Amino acid sequence: MRSPATFTGRAGQAVAIGAFVLTIVDIPKLQYSVFAPEAAVFLAMGAAGLPLLVARAVGHRGSRRATSELWAARLAIAFVVSGLISVAMAARPTLALVGLYQHGTGWLFIAGVAGFWALGTGLGDTERRLLELALIFGALANSVLTVFQQLFGLGGIGLEGLAGQPDGVLGNPVLYGGLAAAALVLITPRFIAQPRRWWAGVVIIGVGIGLSGERLPALLALIVVGFYAGSRWRQRSQSIDQLGWRRSLENAGITIAAILVGSLVAKLKGGLGVVSHAAGSTTSETFGQRLDAWRNGLHAFASHPIFGSGPGQFRAATSPYYSVSDFRVDGGVTITFPDAHNIIIEYAVTTGIIGLGLLAAWFVYAVLHRSGPLIGFGLVILALQMAEPLNIVLTPLAFLAIGAAALTSRANPDSPDETGTRASPAARVPAWIGPTSLALAVVAGVVGILIVVGDVNFETTRADNIANNNQAALGPGATANSLIGFWPDPASLLGTIHLALGKSGQPGQYTQAILWAQQAVDKDPTNSHLLTTLARYQGSVGDNAGATRSALEALKYEMTDPDAESVLGILDTIGHEPEAAKKYLEESLNLVPDQTSLRKVLAALNRGCTALPVTPSHPNLRFHCPPS
Asked: Which fold has domain 486-624?
Protein backbone atom coordinates (compact mmCIF):
# COMPACT_ATOMS: atom_id res chain seq x y z
CA MET A 1 0.00 0.00 0.00
CA ARG A 2 1.39 3.37 -1.02
CA SER A 3 2.12 5.84 1.77
CA PRO A 4 -0.34 8.69 2.21
CA ALA A 5 0.12 11.71 -0.02
CA THR A 6 3.10 10.55 -2.07
CA PHE A 7 3.92 10.75 -5.77
CA THR A 8 3.15 8.11 -8.31
CA GLY A 9 6.07 5.89 -9.28
CA ARG A 10 7.14 7.87 -12.35
CA ALA A 11 7.19 11.20 -10.56
CA GLY A 12 9.21 9.74 -7.70
CA GLN A 13 11.64 8.17 -10.16
CA ALA A 14 12.02 11.54 -11.90
CA VAL A 15 13.01 13.14 -8.58
CA ALA A 16 15.67 10.49 -7.97
CA ILE A 17 17.02 10.80 -11.51
CA GLY A 18 17.10 14.59 -11.18
CA ALA A 19 19.10 14.29 -7.95
CA PHE A 20 21.64 12.06 -9.70
CA VAL A 21 21.90 14.42 -12.67
CA LEU A 22 22.48 17.35 -10.32
CA THR A 23 25.57 15.62 -8.90
CA ILE A 24 27.18 15.01 -12.30
CA VAL A 25 25.95 17.73 -14.66
CA ASP A 26 28.74 19.65 -16.39
CA ILE A 27 29.65 20.94 -19.83
CA PRO A 28 33.45 20.95 -19.72
CA LYS A 29 35.40 23.41 -21.86
CA LEU A 30 32.24 25.24 -22.93
CA GLN A 31 31.36 26.65 -19.51
CA TYR A 32 33.13 29.17 -17.33
CA SER A 33 32.39 26.82 -14.43
CA VAL A 34 29.97 24.08 -13.44
CA PHE A 35 27.55 26.66 -12.05
CA ALA A 36 25.31 27.24 -15.08
CA PRO A 37 24.29 23.61 -15.83
CA GLU A 38 23.86 22.98 -12.11
CA ALA A 39 21.66 26.08 -11.89
CA ALA A 40 19.49 24.82 -14.76
CA VAL A 41 18.80 21.50 -13.04
CA PHE A 42 18.36 23.18 -9.65
CA LEU A 43 15.82 25.70 -10.96
CA ALA A 44 13.73 23.05 -12.70
CA MET A 45 13.62 20.71 -9.69
CA GLY A 46 13.12 23.47 -7.13
CA ALA A 47 10.24 24.97 -9.10
CA ALA A 48 8.65 21.54 -9.48
CA GLY A 49 8.49 21.15 -5.71
CA LEU A 50 6.70 24.42 -4.94
CA PRO A 51 3.13 23.23 -5.64
CA LEU A 52 3.58 20.31 -3.23
CA LEU A 53 5.05 22.73 -0.68
CA VAL A 54 1.87 24.79 -0.84
CA ALA A 55 -0.28 21.66 -0.59
CA ARG A 56 1.66 20.45 2.45
CA ALA A 57 1.25 23.85 4.10
CA VAL A 58 -2.51 23.95 3.46
CA GLY A 59 -2.82 20.42 4.77
CA HIS A 60 -6.08 19.36 3.11
CA ARG A 61 -7.02 15.70 2.84
CA GLY A 62 -4.69 13.92 0.44
CA SER A 63 -1.74 16.20 1.19
CA ARG A 64 -1.51 16.03 4.99
CA ARG A 65 0.50 13.25 6.58
CA ALA A 66 1.77 14.61 9.90
CA THR A 67 1.43 17.72 12.01
CA SER A 68 5.21 18.20 12.10
CA GLU A 69 5.35 18.12 8.30
CA LEU A 70 2.43 20.54 8.08
CA TRP A 71 4.24 23.09 10.23
CA ALA A 72 7.55 22.47 8.48
CA ALA A 73 5.89 23.40 5.18
CA ARG A 74 4.31 26.51 6.67
CA LEU A 75 7.63 27.61 8.16
CA ALA A 76 9.40 26.96 4.85
CA ILE A 77 6.92 29.24 3.07
CA ALA A 78 7.33 31.86 5.81
CA PHE A 79 11.10 31.71 5.33
CA VAL A 80 10.68 32.18 1.57
CA VAL A 81 8.36 35.16 2.10
CA SER A 82 10.71 36.66 4.69
CA GLY A 83 13.55 36.33 2.19
CA LEU A 84 11.48 38.17 -0.41
CA ILE A 85 11.02 41.06 2.05
CA SER A 86 14.80 41.07 2.53
CA VAL A 87 15.18 41.31 -1.26
CA ALA A 88 12.89 44.34 -1.39
CA MET A 89 14.93 46.07 1.34
CA ALA A 90 18.35 45.22 -0.16
CA ALA A 91 20.63 47.87 -1.67
CA ARG A 92 20.44 46.06 -5.00
CA PRO A 93 17.25 43.94 -5.17
CA THR A 94 18.04 42.32 -8.53
CA LEU A 95 21.32 40.92 -7.25
CA ALA A 96 19.64 39.81 -4.01
CA LEU A 97 17.05 38.00 -6.10
CA VAL A 98 19.53 35.93 -8.11
CA GLY A 99 22.66 36.01 -5.92
CA LEU A 100 26.22 36.54 -7.13
CA TYR A 101 27.44 35.02 -10.39
CA GLN A 102 28.89 31.52 -9.90
CA HIS A 103 27.19 31.34 -6.48
CA GLY A 104 23.48 31.90 -7.13
CA THR A 105 22.49 31.89 -3.45
CA GLY A 106 19.97 34.72 -3.66
CA TRP A 107 16.23 34.49 -3.04
CA LEU A 108 15.69 32.04 -5.91
CA PHE A 109 18.05 29.71 -4.08
CA ILE A 110 15.94 29.95 -0.90
CA ALA A 111 12.74 29.21 -2.81
CA GLY A 112 14.39 26.36 -4.72
CA VAL A 113 15.71 24.70 -1.56
CA ALA A 114 12.20 24.83 -0.08
CA GLY A 115 10.94 23.18 -3.28
CA PHE A 116 13.55 20.43 -2.98
CA TRP A 117 12.45 19.67 0.57
CA ALA A 118 8.84 19.42 -0.57
CA LEU A 119 9.83 17.05 -3.40
CA GLY A 120 11.44 14.81 -0.80
CA THR A 121 8.20 14.61 1.18
CA GLY A 122 6.49 13.21 -1.89
CA LEU A 123 8.62 10.07 -2.06
CA GLY A 124 7.29 6.74 -0.85
CA ASP A 125 9.27 3.70 0.27
CA THR A 126 10.24 2.51 -3.21
CA GLU A 127 11.20 5.96 -4.49
CA ARG A 128 13.10 6.68 -1.27
CA ARG A 129 15.33 3.69 -1.87
CA LEU A 130 15.83 4.84 -5.46
CA LEU A 131 16.83 8.30 -4.22
CA GLU A 132 19.39 6.74 -1.88
CA LEU A 133 20.88 4.80 -4.78
CA ALA A 134 20.91 7.94 -6.94
CA LEU A 135 22.89 9.84 -4.30
CA ILE A 136 25.29 6.94 -3.79
CA PHE A 137 25.98 6.57 -7.51
CA GLY A 138 26.36 10.33 -7.88
CA ALA A 139 29.09 10.22 -5.23
CA LEU A 140 30.67 7.14 -6.83
CA ALA A 141 30.75 8.78 -10.28
CA ASN A 142 32.51 11.81 -8.85
CA SER A 143 34.88 9.58 -6.87
CA VAL A 144 35.92 7.63 -9.95
CA LEU A 145 36.52 10.92 -11.73
CA THR A 146 38.76 12.18 -8.90
CA VAL A 147 40.92 9.08 -9.35
CA PHE A 148 41.30 9.77 -13.07
CA GLN A 149 41.96 13.46 -12.41
CA GLN A 150 44.78 12.62 -10.00
CA LEU A 151 46.34 9.76 -11.93
CA PHE A 152 46.05 10.97 -15.50
CA GLY A 153 45.04 14.64 -15.47
CA LEU A 154 41.95 15.57 -17.42
CA GLY A 155 42.81 19.16 -18.32
CA GLY A 156 42.54 18.30 -22.00
CA ILE A 157 38.80 17.83 -21.63
CA GLY A 158 38.33 20.65 -19.13
CA LEU A 159 38.18 18.52 -15.98
CA GLU A 160 41.51 19.35 -14.40
CA GLY A 161 40.21 19.94 -10.86
CA LEU A 162 40.88 23.00 -8.73
CA ALA A 163 44.48 24.12 -8.13
CA GLY A 164 45.78 20.57 -8.45
CA GLN A 165 43.11 19.02 -6.21
CA PRO A 166 40.64 16.62 -7.84
CA ASP A 167 37.01 17.67 -7.43
CA GLY A 168 34.96 15.42 -9.69
CA VAL A 169 32.56 17.70 -11.56
CA LEU A 170 31.53 19.75 -8.54
CA GLY A 171 34.02 22.58 -9.08
CA ASN A 172 35.61 22.41 -5.63
CA PRO A 173 37.27 19.48 -3.82
CA VAL A 174 35.55 20.32 -0.53
CA LEU A 175 32.15 20.05 -2.23
CA TYR A 176 33.08 16.68 -3.69
CA GLY A 177 34.37 15.58 -0.28
CA GLY A 178 31.14 16.66 1.39
CA LEU A 179 29.03 14.65 -1.06
CA ALA A 180 31.31 11.62 -0.62
CA ALA A 181 31.21 11.78 3.18
CA ALA A 182 27.43 12.12 3.15
CA ALA A 183 27.13 9.17 0.76
CA LEU A 184 28.92 7.00 3.33
CA VAL A 185 25.84 7.40 5.53
CA LEU A 186 23.84 5.65 2.80
CA ILE A 187 26.39 3.07 1.70
CA THR A 188 27.56 1.89 5.12
CA PRO A 189 24.33 0.08 6.15
CA ARG A 190 24.31 -1.56 2.73
CA PHE A 191 27.89 -2.76 3.29
CA ILE A 192 26.94 -4.13 6.71
CA ALA A 193 24.06 -6.05 5.14
CA GLN A 194 25.88 -7.15 1.95
CA PRO A 195 29.63 -6.53 2.21
CA ARG A 196 30.55 -8.42 -0.97
CA ARG A 197 28.29 -6.19 -3.04
CA TRP A 198 29.32 -2.84 -1.53
CA TRP A 199 32.97 -3.07 -0.44
CA ALA A 200 34.22 -1.65 -3.75
CA GLY A 201 31.97 1.38 -3.37
CA VAL A 202 33.35 2.05 0.11
CA VAL A 203 36.90 1.80 -1.23
CA ILE A 204 36.26 4.14 -4.17
CA ILE A 205 34.66 6.80 -2.00
CA GLY A 206 37.37 6.53 0.66
CA VAL A 207 40.14 6.85 -1.92
CA GLY A 208 38.41 9.87 -3.44
CA ILE A 209 38.19 11.61 -0.07
CA GLY A 210 41.89 10.98 0.50
CA LEU A 211 42.77 12.30 -2.96
CA SER A 212 40.71 15.46 -2.52
CA GLY A 213 42.99 16.72 0.26
CA GLU A 214 40.10 18.27 2.19
CA ARG A 215 40.19 17.82 5.95
CA LEU A 216 36.60 18.51 7.02
CA PRO A 217 35.05 15.91 4.68
CA ALA A 218 37.60 13.37 5.90
CA LEU A 219 36.70 14.15 9.50
CA LEU A 220 32.99 13.82 8.70
CA ALA A 221 33.68 10.47 7.00
CA LEU A 222 35.41 9.21 10.16
CA ILE A 223 32.48 10.41 12.27
CA VAL A 224 30.05 8.55 10.01
CA VAL A 225 31.83 5.18 10.18
CA GLY A 226 32.48 5.72 13.89
CA PHE A 227 28.78 6.38 14.48
CA TYR A 228 27.77 3.16 12.78
CA ALA A 229 30.42 1.20 14.67
CA GLY A 230 29.27 2.71 17.97
CA SER A 231 25.61 1.98 17.33
CA ARG A 232 26.42 -1.61 16.40
CA TRP A 233 28.55 -1.91 19.54
CA ARG A 234 25.53 -1.06 21.67
CA GLN A 235 23.51 -3.70 19.87
CA ARG A 236 26.35 -6.19 20.34
CA SER A 237 26.42 -5.61 24.08
CA GLN A 238 22.73 -6.51 24.10
CA SER A 239 23.44 -9.68 22.08
CA ILE A 240 21.28 -8.35 19.28
CA ASP A 241 23.64 -8.14 16.32
CA GLN A 242 27.08 -9.77 16.60
CA LEU A 243 27.59 -10.01 12.83
CA GLY A 244 26.61 -6.38 12.25
CA TRP A 245 29.18 -5.26 14.84
CA ARG A 246 32.01 -7.08 13.06
CA ARG A 247 30.97 -5.78 9.69
CA SER A 248 30.75 -2.21 10.99
CA LEU A 249 34.35 -2.55 12.15
CA GLU A 250 35.34 -3.92 8.75
CA ASN A 251 33.59 -0.96 7.10
CA ALA A 252 35.43 1.51 9.34
CA GLY A 253 38.76 -0.19 8.66
CA ILE A 254 38.25 -0.26 4.89
CA THR A 255 37.16 3.39 4.83
CA ILE A 256 40.12 4.60 6.87
CA ALA A 257 42.57 2.50 4.85
CA ALA A 258 41.12 3.81 1.59
CA ILE A 259 41.42 7.43 2.76
CA LEU A 260 45.08 6.82 3.68
CA VAL A 261 45.77 5.14 0.33
CA GLY A 262 44.15 8.03 -1.54
CA SER A 263 46.19 10.54 0.43
CA LEU A 264 49.42 8.63 -0.28
CA VAL A 265 48.66 8.37 -4.00
CA ALA A 266 47.96 12.11 -4.13
CA LYS A 267 51.30 12.82 -2.46
CA LEU A 268 53.20 10.53 -4.82
CA LYS A 269 51.53 12.15 -7.84
CA GLY A 270 52.41 15.66 -6.69
CA GLY A 271 49.00 16.44 -5.25
CA LEU A 272 47.98 17.48 -1.76
CA GLY A 273 46.36 14.52 -0.03
CA VAL A 274 44.29 14.84 3.10
CA VAL A 275 46.97 13.56 5.50
CA SER A 276 49.70 15.92 4.31
CA HIS A 277 47.19 18.80 4.17
CA ALA A 278 46.12 18.16 7.75
CA ALA A 279 49.71 17.80 8.95
CA GLY A 280 50.94 20.92 7.16
CA SER A 281 48.08 23.28 7.91
CA THR A 282 48.04 25.89 10.64
CA THR A 283 45.24 27.22 12.80
CA SER A 284 45.52 30.59 11.06
CA GLU A 285 45.24 28.99 7.63
CA THR A 286 42.25 26.92 8.66
CA PHE A 287 40.26 29.46 10.65
CA GLY A 288 41.88 32.88 10.08
CA GLN A 289 39.86 34.09 7.12
CA ARG A 290 36.71 32.37 8.34
CA LEU A 291 36.97 34.04 11.73
CA ASP A 292 37.42 37.40 10.00
CA ALA A 293 34.30 36.73 7.92
CA TRP A 294 32.28 35.57 10.92
CA ARG A 295 33.31 38.52 13.07
CA ASN A 296 32.53 41.00 10.30
CA GLY A 297 29.31 39.13 9.67
CA LEU A 298 28.23 39.86 13.23
CA HIS A 299 28.96 43.57 12.64
CA ALA A 300 26.85 43.46 9.47
CA PHE A 301 24.05 41.65 11.32
CA ALA A 302 24.03 44.34 14.00
CA SER A 303 23.60 46.97 11.26
CA HIS A 304 20.55 45.23 9.72
CA PRO A 305 19.24 42.86 12.39
CA ILE A 306 15.59 42.46 11.37
CA PHE A 307 15.52 41.49 7.69
CA GLY A 308 19.26 41.51 6.92
CA SER A 309 21.08 42.90 3.90
CA GLY A 310 19.41 40.72 1.28
CA PRO A 311 19.90 37.07 0.24
CA GLY A 312 23.28 36.38 -1.31
CA GLN A 313 24.63 39.78 -0.25
CA PHE A 314 27.09 38.66 2.41
CA ARG A 315 30.10 40.20 0.64
CA ALA A 316 28.41 43.56 0.20
CA ALA A 317 27.27 43.54 3.83
CA THR A 318 30.63 42.64 5.36
CA SER A 319 33.32 44.17 3.12
CA PRO A 320 33.20 47.63 4.81
CA TYR A 321 34.16 46.01 8.13
CA TYR A 322 37.46 44.47 7.00
CA SER A 323 40.41 46.29 8.52
CA VAL A 324 44.06 46.62 7.59
CA SER A 325 44.89 44.31 10.50
CA ASP A 326 42.65 41.62 8.95
CA PHE A 327 44.55 42.02 5.71
CA ARG A 328 47.94 41.60 7.41
CA VAL A 329 46.87 38.63 9.50
CA ASP A 330 45.76 36.85 6.35
CA GLY A 331 49.22 37.14 4.84
CA GLY A 332 48.61 40.17 2.65
CA VAL A 333 45.68 38.75 0.73
CA THR A 334 42.32 40.48 0.85
CA ILE A 335 39.53 37.93 0.84
CA THR A 336 36.06 39.29 1.39
CA PHE A 337 34.08 36.07 1.23
CA PRO A 338 31.01 36.07 -1.02
CA ASP A 339 29.55 33.59 1.47
CA ALA A 340 29.88 33.37 5.25
CA HIS A 341 31.18 29.77 5.15
CA ASN A 342 28.63 29.18 7.90
CA ILE A 343 24.94 28.68 7.17
CA ILE A 344 23.84 30.30 10.45
CA ILE A 345 25.90 33.47 10.03
CA GLU A 346 25.05 33.57 6.33
CA TYR A 347 21.33 33.83 6.96
CA ALA A 348 21.69 36.03 10.02
CA VAL A 349 23.49 38.59 7.85
CA THR A 350 21.39 38.24 4.71
CA THR A 351 17.86 37.60 6.05
CA GLY A 352 18.15 38.93 9.60
CA ILE A 353 16.88 37.48 12.84
CA ILE A 354 13.43 36.83 11.35
CA GLY A 355 14.77 34.82 8.43
CA LEU A 356 17.26 32.92 10.60
CA GLY A 357 14.58 32.11 13.17
CA LEU A 358 12.20 30.81 10.51
CA LEU A 359 14.98 28.71 8.94
CA ALA A 360 15.85 27.18 12.32
CA ALA A 361 12.21 26.43 13.12
CA TRP A 362 11.70 24.91 9.66
CA PHE A 363 14.72 22.66 10.15
CA VAL A 364 13.53 21.49 13.59
CA TYR A 365 10.07 20.55 12.31
CA ALA A 366 11.53 19.07 9.13
CA VAL A 367 13.62 16.51 11.06
CA LEU A 368 11.03 15.90 13.77
CA HIS A 369 9.68 12.33 13.78
CA ARG A 370 11.83 11.27 10.85
CA SER A 371 14.35 8.48 10.75
CA GLY A 372 16.65 6.59 8.45
CA PRO A 373 19.96 7.20 6.70
CA LEU A 374 18.66 10.07 4.56
CA ILE A 375 18.47 12.19 7.72
CA GLY A 376 22.16 11.44 8.27
CA PHE A 377 22.96 12.35 4.65
CA GLY A 378 21.36 15.76 5.11
CA LEU A 379 22.97 16.37 8.49
CA VAL A 380 26.47 15.59 7.18
CA ILE A 381 26.10 18.16 4.41
CA LEU A 382 24.69 20.78 6.76
CA ALA A 383 27.56 20.07 9.17
CA LEU A 384 29.96 20.73 6.27
CA GLN A 385 28.21 24.03 5.66
CA MET A 386 28.97 25.20 9.16
CA ALA A 387 32.46 25.93 7.79
CA GLU A 388 31.99 25.91 4.00
CA PRO A 389 29.83 27.86 1.53
CA LEU A 390 26.24 27.19 0.63
CA ASN A 391 26.12 25.38 -2.68
CA ILE A 392 23.58 25.00 -5.44
CA VAL A 393 24.09 21.21 -5.46
CA LEU A 394 24.77 20.13 -1.89
CA THR A 395 22.37 22.39 0.03
CA PRO A 396 19.23 21.41 -1.94
CA LEU A 397 20.23 17.74 -1.85
CA ALA A 398 20.51 17.96 1.94
CA PHE A 399 16.95 19.29 2.23
CA LEU A 400 15.68 16.84 -0.39
CA ALA A 401 17.09 13.98 1.69
CA ILE A 402 15.61 15.32 4.93
CA GLY A 403 12.20 15.70 3.29
CA ALA A 404 12.40 12.17 1.92
CA ALA A 405 13.37 10.56 5.23
CA ALA A 406 10.76 8.15 6.56
CA LEU A 407 8.13 9.46 8.96
CA THR A 408 7.81 7.40 12.12
CA SER A 409 4.53 6.37 13.69
CA ARG A 410 5.04 9.08 16.33
CA ALA A 411 4.56 11.74 13.63
CA ASN A 412 0.81 11.25 13.79
CA PRO A 413 -0.46 8.44 16.05
CA ASP A 414 -3.86 8.50 14.34
CA SER A 415 -2.42 7.97 10.84
CA PRO A 416 -0.49 5.06 9.38
CA ASP A 417 3.26 5.23 9.38
CA GLU A 418 5.07 4.55 6.14
CA THR A 419 5.29 0.85 6.83
CA GLY A 420 1.52 0.64 7.00
CA THR A 421 1.35 -0.53 10.61
CA ARG A 422 -1.84 1.48 11.17
CA ALA A 423 -4.58 0.79 8.73
CA SER A 424 -5.94 3.74 6.79
CA PRO A 425 -6.83 4.41 3.18
CA ALA A 426 -3.75 5.50 1.25
CA ALA A 427 -3.90 8.75 -0.64
CA ARG A 428 -1.77 10.25 -3.32
CA VAL A 429 -0.93 13.91 -3.65
CA PRO A 430 -3.78 16.04 -5.07
CA ALA A 431 -4.24 15.64 -8.82
CA TRP A 432 -3.57 19.31 -9.61
CA ILE A 433 -0.01 19.13 -8.29
CA GLY A 434 1.38 17.01 -11.13
CA PRO A 435 0.47 19.30 -14.05
CA THR A 436 1.33 22.43 -12.06
CA SER A 437 4.74 21.06 -11.06
CA LEU A 438 5.47 20.04 -14.64
CA ALA A 439 4.53 23.48 -15.97
CA LEU A 440 6.71 25.26 -13.42
CA ALA A 441 9.59 22.88 -14.10
CA VAL A 442 9.38 23.59 -17.84
CA VAL A 443 9.35 27.37 -17.33
CA ALA A 444 12.23 27.22 -14.86
CA GLY A 445 14.08 24.80 -17.13
CA VAL A 446 13.83 27.26 -20.04
CA VAL A 447 15.27 29.98 -17.80
CA GLY A 448 18.04 27.57 -16.83
CA ILE A 449 18.82 26.80 -20.48
CA LEU A 450 19.09 30.52 -21.21
CA ILE A 451 21.55 30.82 -18.32
CA VAL A 452 23.58 27.95 -19.79
CA VAL A 453 23.63 29.58 -23.24
CA GLY A 454 24.58 32.92 -21.71
CA ASP A 455 27.37 31.27 -19.74
CA VAL A 456 28.69 29.50 -22.84
CA ASN A 457 28.85 32.85 -24.62
CA PHE A 458 30.54 34.39 -21.59
CA GLU A 459 33.19 31.67 -21.67
CA THR A 460 33.66 32.21 -25.42
CA THR A 461 34.12 35.94 -24.82
CA ARG A 462 36.59 35.31 -22.03
CA ALA A 463 38.62 32.87 -24.14
CA ASP A 464 38.72 35.31 -27.08
CA ASN A 465 39.87 38.10 -24.76
CA ILE A 466 42.67 35.93 -23.37
CA ALA A 467 43.71 35.06 -26.93
CA ASN A 468 43.60 38.78 -27.86
CA ASN A 469 40.78 38.18 -30.36
CA ASN A 470 38.91 41.13 -28.91
CA GLN A 471 36.97 42.15 -32.01
CA ALA A 472 35.56 38.62 -32.30
CA ALA A 473 34.72 38.64 -28.58
CA LEU A 474 32.21 41.50 -28.89
CA GLY A 475 29.42 39.39 -30.43
CA PRO A 476 29.27 36.58 -27.86
CA GLY A 477 29.90 39.16 -25.13
CA ALA A 478 26.78 41.07 -26.14
CA THR A 479 24.80 37.81 -26.21
CA ALA A 480 26.05 36.90 -22.74
CA ASN A 481 25.07 40.31 -21.44
CA SER A 482 21.57 40.03 -22.90
CA LEU A 483 20.98 36.56 -21.40
CA ILE A 484 22.69 36.80 -18.01
CA GLY A 485 22.96 40.56 -17.74
CA PHE A 486 21.35 40.64 -14.30
CA TRP A 487 24.91 39.82 -13.19
CA PRO A 488 27.61 42.49 -13.71
CA ASP A 489 30.26 40.07 -14.99
CA PRO A 490 29.44 40.21 -18.75
CA ALA A 491 29.34 44.03 -18.70
CA SER A 492 32.64 44.14 -16.82
CA LEU A 493 34.26 41.79 -19.35
CA LEU A 494 32.97 43.87 -22.26
CA GLY A 495 34.57 46.90 -20.64
CA THR A 496 37.89 45.05 -20.53
CA ILE A 497 37.56 44.16 -24.21
CA HIS A 498 36.77 47.71 -25.31
CA LEU A 499 39.72 48.98 -23.29
CA ALA A 500 42.01 46.51 -25.05
CA LEU A 501 40.66 47.67 -28.41
CA GLY A 502 41.34 51.26 -27.39
CA LYS A 503 44.93 50.42 -26.51
CA SER A 504 45.32 48.72 -29.88
CA GLY A 505 44.74 51.99 -31.72
CA GLN A 506 40.99 52.63 -31.57
CA PRO A 507 40.70 55.64 -29.22
CA GLY A 508 36.91 55.76 -29.42
CA GLN A 509 36.76 52.40 -27.65
CA TYR A 510 37.82 54.02 -24.36
CA THR A 511 34.42 55.66 -24.04
CA GLN A 512 32.71 52.33 -24.61
CA ALA A 513 34.93 50.75 -21.96
CA ILE A 514 33.82 53.35 -19.42
CA LEU A 515 30.16 52.89 -20.31
CA TRP A 516 30.35 49.13 -19.81
CA ALA A 517 32.33 49.50 -16.60
CA GLN A 518 29.74 51.95 -15.30
CA GLN A 519 26.96 49.51 -16.22
CA ALA A 520 28.73 46.79 -14.23
CA VAL A 521 28.99 49.11 -11.22
CA ASP A 522 25.30 49.99 -11.51
CA LYS A 523 24.46 46.30 -11.21
CA ASP A 524 26.68 45.76 -8.16
CA PRO A 525 27.39 49.20 -6.66
CA THR A 526 29.15 47.93 -3.54
CA ASN A 527 31.79 45.91 -5.41
CA SER A 528 35.14 47.62 -4.83
CA HIS A 529 36.80 45.72 -7.67
CA LEU A 530 34.27 47.01 -10.21
CA LEU A 531 34.59 50.55 -8.83
CA THR A 532 38.38 50.44 -9.02
CA THR A 533 38.19 49.13 -12.60
CA LEU A 534 35.92 52.02 -13.51
CA ALA A 535 38.39 54.43 -11.88
CA ARG A 536 41.24 53.05 -14.01
CA TYR A 537 39.22 53.45 -17.19
CA GLN A 538 38.21 57.00 -16.28
CA GLY A 539 41.82 57.85 -15.56
CA SER A 540 42.87 56.46 -18.95
CA VAL A 541 40.87 59.23 -20.72
CA GLY A 542 41.95 61.99 -18.38
CA ASP A 543 38.79 62.11 -16.26
CA ASN A 544 40.81 62.34 -13.07
CA ALA A 545 37.95 63.80 -11.05
CA GLY A 546 35.65 60.93 -11.99
CA ALA A 547 38.39 58.39 -11.37
CA THR A 548 39.05 59.84 -7.93
CA ARG A 549 35.36 59.62 -7.01
CA SER A 550 35.16 56.00 -8.14
CA ALA A 551 38.33 54.97 -6.29
CA LEU A 552 37.21 56.70 -3.08
CA GLU A 553 33.86 54.93 -3.40
CA ALA A 554 35.75 51.64 -3.70
CA LEU A 555 37.56 52.34 -0.43
CA LYS A 556 34.23 53.09 1.21
CA TYR A 557 33.21 49.48 0.62
CA GLU A 558 36.64 47.89 1.11
CA MET A 559 39.18 49.92 3.00
CA THR A 560 41.88 47.32 2.38
CA ASP A 561 41.74 47.52 -1.41
CA PRO A 562 45.36 48.08 -2.51
CA ASP A 563 44.29 48.63 -6.12
CA ALA A 564 42.08 51.57 -5.16
CA GLU A 565 44.94 52.98 -3.06
CA SER A 566 47.33 52.69 -6.00
CA VAL A 567 44.86 54.37 -8.39
CA LEU A 568 44.48 57.30 -6.01
CA GLY A 569 48.25 57.51 -5.61
CA ILE A 570 48.79 57.68 -9.37
CA LEU A 571 45.98 60.23 -9.79
CA ASP A 572 47.52 62.49 -7.14
CA THR A 573 50.91 62.04 -8.79
CA ILE A 574 49.46 63.22 -12.12
CA GLY A 575 47.66 66.03 -10.31
CA HIS A 576 50.93 67.22 -8.74
CA GLU A 577 49.85 66.43 -5.18
CA PRO A 578 53.03 64.61 -4.11
CA GLU A 579 52.31 64.31 -0.39
CA ALA A 580 48.83 62.85 -0.91
CA ALA A 581 50.26 60.60 -3.62
CA LYS A 582 52.99 59.30 -1.30
CA LYS A 583 50.40 58.50 1.39
CA TYR A 584 48.25 56.39 -0.93
CA LEU A 585 51.22 54.68 -2.59
CA GLU A 586 52.77 53.80 0.77
CA GLU A 587 49.46 52.38 2.02
CA SER A 588 49.09 50.27 -1.13
CA LEU A 589 52.68 49.00 -0.81
CA ASN A 590 52.16 48.36 2.87
CA LEU A 591 49.33 46.03 1.93
CA VAL A 592 51.02 44.44 -1.10
CA PRO A 593 54.79 45.05 -1.04
CA ASP A 594 55.47 43.31 -4.36
CA GLN A 595 54.40 46.18 -6.66
CA THR A 596 57.54 47.15 -8.57
CA SER A 597 55.93 49.86 -10.69
CA LEU A 598 54.51 51.63 -7.63
CA ARG A 599 57.87 51.52 -5.92
CA LYS A 600 59.42 53.28 -8.91
CA VAL A 601 56.74 55.99 -8.79
CA LEU A 602 57.25 56.46 -5.05
CA ALA A 603 61.03 56.64 -5.51
CA ALA A 604 60.58 59.31 -8.20
CA LEU A 605 58.35 61.38 -5.91
CA ASN A 606 60.84 61.07 -3.07
CA ARG A 607 63.52 62.44 -5.40
CA GLY A 608 61.36 65.49 -6.08
CA CYS A 609 60.36 64.45 -9.61
CA THR A 610 57.25 65.93 -11.25
CA ALA A 611 54.86 63.97 -13.40
CA LEU A 612 54.62 65.01 -17.04
CA PRO A 613 51.15 65.33 -18.62
CA VAL A 614 49.46 62.07 -19.58
CA THR A 615 48.03 62.31 -23.12
CA PRO A 616 46.69 59.80 -25.65
CA SER A 617 50.04 59.97 -27.44
CA HIS A 618 51.90 59.49 -24.13
CA PRO A 619 49.57 57.35 -22.00
CA ASN A 620 52.27 56.07 -19.64
CA LEU A 621 53.38 57.94 -16.55
CA ARG A 622 56.63 59.90 -17.11
CA PHE A 623 58.62 62.20 -14.85
CA HIS A 624 60.79 65.28 -15.04
CA CYS A 625 63.39 64.94 -12.31
CA PRO A 626 65.83 67.49 -10.90
CA PRO A 627 69.52 66.91 -11.62
CA SER A 628 70.98 64.41 -9.20
From this structure: 1.25.40
